[in-house]
Amino acid sequence: MIRKLLPALLALVALAGPASATEMFEKVGTIGFQFLEMGAGPRGVGMGEAMVAATDGIESLYWNPAGLRSITGPTVFFSYGTWPADISHQFVGYAMRPGFIQGIVGVSVTTLSMEPMVVRTADSPDGVGVEFDCSDMAVGVSYARAFTDKFSAGGTLKWIHSSLGDLSVLDVEGLEDYTIDVIAGDFGTLYDTGFRSLKIGLFIQNMGPEGTYIDEPVPLPTTFKFGVSMDVLNVAGQKVLVAGEFKHPADTSEKVNVGAEYSLNNTYFVRGGYRIDYDEESFTAGGGAKLTIGALGRIAVDYSYSDMGDLGGVHRAGLTLEF
Prior knowledge:
The protein is mainly β. The chain has one domain: Outer membrane protein transport protein (OMPP1/FadL/TodX) (Porin, Beta Barrel), CATH 2.40.160. The chain is 9% helix and 52% strand. It contains four helices and 18 strands. The strands form three sheets. Strands 1-2-3-6-7-8-9-12-13-14-15-16-17-18 form a 14-stranded antiparallel barrel. A two-stranded antiparallel sheet has the order 4-5. Strands 10-11 form a two-stranded antiparallel ribbon. A hairpin with a 5-residue loop joins strand 17 and strand 18. The longest helix is centred in the N-terminal third of the chain and has 14 residues, at 2-15. It is globular and about 70 Å long. Residues 1-26 have low confidence and may be disordered.
């Protein structure tokens, strides 16, 4: 089976092959909706975002919906992150097995928001007496199914809304309330090779038509990801999971993410990772705990820290409820 898959994997990598340095330079800054590339979930971020083959459970709504196959009952997930410049990133997800159809169904909401800013002009550098704010939101519906005990696939259909704020106070034609709506999709697969827990994941994220700001086309941040994961230790209640991921964004050169997770009795977790060939982003770290609390079911609390170089650090916290 692995031999049959390898030609297809190599073909996909070739199709997503690297562009020249000139092409990459020309594309930087031309892709919109960048909030879609912000990692959703402290577990995945703590592992360096190398999650396309390592993901399972509710966070798979973002990392690779094929990983939803491990969902056994209704599960809710909340994540909150603080970014530089007083920007906040939120992700809420819900997944379940509906019963009347095979597989898992999930919904998710991603938002990016910031504090209101004063409208300033060259003639009024202290402001014109009003404020505006910018925000982004994506609402997704996901479906995943395990076709065999080793292979699963899943996809997400997303409605994306972006607002640049209301600048009509400037009385300039074309600077009214600027919003844009786009439809996009994700598709991913996850394959358990059966060899020492080795898994292979493929994921294409944010596929769809470009949007338009004023008269300028703005493409989506379509990204191709290929990854592997494996348990390098699994004895006496202790497990070490390692993962690696190749990432081909539409607007920059290829990236590589690596990460690891140590778990004790599947209850306490320590994570670390590194992102290679990024401008500012580098190491990540985090941890969490998963407990059973009576009638409430399983509750997991997770945290991650991401180094952003000169921009400082990004903190994320997450809460998962399994009923």
